[in-house]
Please model this.
Amino acid sequence: MTPDLLSGLVLFAFVSSITPGPNNLMLMASGANFGFRRTVPHMLGVAIGFTVMVTVMGAGLAGLFEFYPVSYTVLKVVSVVYMLWLAWKIAKAAPPDGSRRSTAPMTFLQAAAFQWVNPKAWAMALTAISAYSPGHTLGAIALVALVFGAVNLPSVGSWTVIGQQMARLLTNPRRLALFNWTMALLLVASLYPVLAGH
Model:
């Protein structure tokens, strides 16, 4: 990989990892509700899960969509249903009366598995492999995955820190409930490109 291509990959990985999307919105909500330390497994699940996803996509899974276009439609439907369910969970994380339900932050495995139904993660992985993996050699695929792994963790971690800092303003149960509902609605809004067919 040439230095120009590598720098382009690093920039793409940073921009796509730091901008709002399902992972970052859920991490911000988790940081606000559970704090940084309890959200670490969620963050690691996102970073490592996405790195594995890029590797598997580069190894040939992306070709599945070319041969079986209906599989992409199935993925979209499953993604939308699952993300609507997650949005509901986020909205109900802090009930208006201030009592805590038996909610818990997302686990490492849940966060890693979520990458496979996250439309933004699919778009990022497909673009990264297509644009920054010349020849789709094992070395090029591994480099793309490693760059994303290195850039993704601090990027998603920053959203957790933002959520944790916002928790200071969300000590009132009503404000916390409003925050959670807002995060849930933003998560649903992030589905627009999927539903619009982009």
